[in-house]
Amino acid sequence: MIVCHKCDFVLSIGSRLPQTCPAWRFDMLRHQDLKVLAKASLTWLSQSLYSFITQSLLFAAGLRPTPAQATAVLKDGMQHVGKLICSNLGARMDSEPKLWRILADALYDLGTGLEVLSPLCPHLFLEMAGLGNFAKGMAVVAARATRLPIYSSFAKEGNLSDLFAKGEAISTLFNVLVWEQGFN
Per the database record, which ranges form the Protein root UVB sensitive/RUS domain (predicted)? Predict the structure, then answer.
């Protein structure tokens, strides 16, 4: 239950938002801003910890900063750039989620192919691996953005969570099978 302190309106679960209280809209905007700030802070903290943990593991393995590590950081950074660019296309994905999902799969396959081929061209390693990661970053955003509309079209009443869980289980099963195949 939320109470507007300007007009004493009480918002309970299932009630409609008041249209007459400007303070209410301000409070909701401030609440949304706080949610965005909290998510950004948690993401920054998570990425910082990931960087520190990776650096600690490299140091524990006896590796010191080298040009190869800088290349790896640049290559992986391209994936983040791809994610940022594709996130601007999110509104377009709502109209044709199936098309964007197919494009996401094709982009991911292209990115993986470039990464696999990059050792064959050592003089172009950073460009090929970076472009591959860029494509994979865009593909991940497009796949995640289209997942809900596609799953919603398959959902019966109230089983959307079940569909998500089954989709994750199938994905995990295939990952384990491919992982096990790599050891044989």
Answer: 46-177
Quick count: other Cβ atoms within 10 Å of Cβ 96? 13
Are both 57 and 79 inside the same structural domain? no
Q: Are residues 25 and 101 in the same domain?
A: no
- The DSSP bridge pattern shows strands 10-11 and 2-3 to be antiparallel
Task: Going from the first residue of the chain to its last (184 residues), give the mean pLDDT of each consecutive group of 10, the final group possibly shorter.
Answer: 54 54 55 73 79 72 69 81 90 88 93 90 88 94 88 76 83 81 69
Distance of CA 129 to the CA centre of its chain: 20
**pTM of the model as a whole:** 0.61
- Which one-letter amino acid corresponds to residue 63? L
Whether residue 88 is found in the same domain as residue 131: yes
Domain holding 57, by residue range, is: 1-64
